[in-house]
Amino acid sequence: MRSFLAFLRNPLAATAALMVAVLVFLALFAPEIWGAQAAQTDTSALLQGPSEPHPLGTDGLGRDMLLRTLVATRLSLGMALIATVIGLVFGLLLGALPSVLGPRVQRLFSSIISTWLAFPVLLVAMLTVILLGPSSGSAVIALGLTMVPSFARLAQTLSSRVGGSEYLAAARMMGVSRARQFTRYVLPNIAEPIIVNVTLSIGGGLLALSSLSFLGVGVQPPDFDWGRMLSEAFDQVYTNPAAVVGPGVAVVFAGVAFGTLGESLAAHLRSHGRGSVLSRRRLGPPPRVADREQIGDDRALLRVEGLSVAFPSATGWVRPVQDVSFSVAPGEIVGVVGESGSGKSVALMAVAQLSAAGAAVTARTLRFDGDDLLDLPRADVKKRLGTKMGIVFQDSLTALNPALRVGTQLGEIPHFHGRDTRADAHRKAVDALRDVAIDEPERRSRQFPHEFSGGMRQRALIAMSQIGKPRLIIADEPTTALDVTVQQRVLALLRRECERTGAAAIVVSHDIAVLAELCQRILVMYAGRIVEDVDVRLLATPEKLAHPYTRALTESLPDVDTDRTQPLATIPGEPPDLSLPMVGCGFAARCPFATERCMTEAPLMSDHIHGGRVACWHPQDGVPIDGILGDPLVLNTGSNAQEVR
User: Which of 199, 325, 171 is nearest to 262 (CA)?
Assistant: First the structure.
């Protein structure tokens, strides 16, 4: 309501709304009020000019032109609305529906849309009318067919963004039907631009239908619309020009009304609702954690071996994840850290079966909670992961469906997987919000995501990940864009919920200090590979860390003792180009300890003396950490030593 009132504060928008209201009133009531008078013939007043009883004159049968213009509003506006609805419905089915049907269907429908758009609009309209015969129905169908491809292209463009969203991925994982994905996830999130286009199309449709009737292939006598009236009055335009004023002004008035309303809606939507994002901050010193029991693969909750993910590109395959292997024990909280582009999120989304369209995912072993995900049918995988695995996505604002209330989204899992009634699902959603310390959960459950703060949205995502009582939670950078105090609360909440439910968790972050606050074990990724599996306690004694990259990450973290007069430490060089074949160790070009073997042979994971595993030919256990960062690197290749910058 507030948004509507704000829209009407614009004088141009208010004027357009008033004009459309006048047209709607005439369409509804004019035939009932003046229909009989408009149809009454008067042989004594044939083809008269303007007069007191007939302000716009009469036609060839003595009928009043003004009243006929008012009465014709219903048929003119109704035909334009029906044609627009035809174009809208088939356009949405052709353009937006493929977003939930998969990439093959998308490519097929995209080809159909492109071919349809190649035909001239007037040619399609005239051909349709010729095939069906001149009539009002033929004109409506013809106009509807010409509108379909434009609506389809717009819907295709808008739905492509929704199709790649995290909240739609979560809906697929929960097992939401494709019909519901389309009606509750895709359509509401493309509605605003579509509504604007509908408004503009009605105005254009009125003009197009009037043109067809004027040419004699639209409305046929005894029915009449504005175009038919213009055609009949055209013969007397020189003797009685007032005869064309009524229908002519009506066509212009309707076109301006709907066109202005559409433009005003577009301007209002462009200026409506802007937000800001908070910057990330580093957390405090790591806490002490209890000793972790070493658990064999036979007792692991999640076991991954040889996971690789590749994406096609114009120059070949890009491989952001290469031969990744790890396991997670029941109740364990594991962190995954690395620079941007190291493959952290891509690897875990592949584990959750949420890889982007076009991704080629392979693995030797992928077992979760006793199920071999590689051998299960796709439908069974979705059913198992929908409740046993919870996802906390990185961006809470895009991960939550902006068109659905928060409580409705949380209730999807118990409703679809638990077969609960809507009332029971809503009650569980309220309880879940209460469990994550959101005040007034009943009221908050009926709000939309944009009405939540960033920290509240992140807590709502944690509640959503927990509502199905999953065995494993994957949190993809859950503290991104939150300030330090909110970060602390979110991490403490995630840890508490895991302890309360016994769920294991994998937490992704760029910041090793964030993981030290939460996790028991950290997987360090670089260039798509895991280079070290390290106990979090070793971060307090960096000289016990084995891989030079892990050491460099810890050395680049400032603390209270850091000399503020010196520039922050950085890791020299850049990560390798993953579109090229990787030979040897991916970190070799940036490593001060690299040798010829590092450049030609990829290291394998092996145990190191302080616990954990490392993939490095020259692990640095016990070597002082000074001097890893900053200077150009020299490969230790004897007489062929070379500098790497």
Answer: 199
> Token pair 């996802």 is at which residue?
391
C-alpha pair distances (Å), 451 with each of 306, 457, 467, 481, 486? 43, 9, 21, 17, 17
Instruction: Compute φ and ψ for 477, nearest 5 degrees.
Output: 50, 65
Chain centroid to Cα 458, Å, comes to: 17
Q: Where are the alpha helices (DSSP H) in 506-601?
A: 512-518, 548-555, 596-600
Give me the DSSP letters along 346-402.
HHHHHHTT-PPTT-EEE-SEEEETTEETTTS-HHHHHHHHHHHEEEE-S-HHHHS-T
Q: Which residues of the chain have pLDDT under 50?
A: 272-296, 627, 630-645
Q: How far is 523 from 536, CA to CA, in rounded Å? A: 10
Compute how many other C-beta atoms are within 10 angstroms of the C-beta atom of residue 237.
12
Dist. CA 309–CA 311, nearest whole Å: 7
What gap in Å lies between CA 485 and CA 479, rounded to an integer? Answer: 10
Burial 459-469 (b: 16+ CB within 10 A, else e): bbbbbbbbbbe
3-state DSSP of 604-639: CCEECCCCCEECCCCCCCCCCCCCCCCCCEEEECHH
Q: Tokens in use for 338? A: 């690395």
Q: What token pair was written down for 253?
A: 């008035």
Could you give the angle at which helices 187-214 and 136-163 cross, rounded to 10 degrees?
160
CATH superfamily of 280-402+462-540: P-loop containing nucleotide triphosphate hydrolases (3.40.50.300)
Instruction: Specify whether the CB–CB gap between 56 and 62 falls below 8 A.
Output: no
* Architecture field, domain 75-270: Orthogonal Bundle (1.10)
Residue 376: phi and psi, rounded to 5, are -80, 145
C-alpha distance across the termini of the chain, in Å: 60
Residue 406, classified by CB atoms within 10 Å of its CB into exposed (0-12), middle (13-18) or buried (19+), is: buried
Question: In this predicted structure, what is the pLDDT of residue 269?
Answer: 67
The pLDDT score that the predictor gives to residue 609 is 73
The tokens for 192 are 């605003």
Amino acid type, 601: E
- What is the spatial distance between Cα 159 and Cα 156, in angstroms, rounded to a whole number? 5
* CA 262 to centroid of chain Cα atoms: 25
Question: What 8-state DSSP symbol labels residue 272?
Answer: S
Instruction: Look at the block and give the residue holding tokens 């809208």.
Output: 88
Contact 129, 142 (CB under 8 A): yes
The residue ranges of every structural domain in the chain are 75-270, 280-402+462-540, 544-645
pLDDT of residue 420: 82
Burial category of 5 from C-beta neighbours within 10 Å (exposed 0-12, middle 13-18, buried 19 and up): exposed
**One-letter-per-residue 3-state SS of 40-102:** CCCHHHCCCCCCCCCCCCECCCCCEHHHHHHHHHHHHHHHHHHHHHHHHHHHHHHHCHHHHCC
Apex 293 CA angle, 290 and 299, nearest 5: 140
316-328 vs 371-372, strand pairing mode: unpaired
Contact 264, 270 (CB under 8 A): no
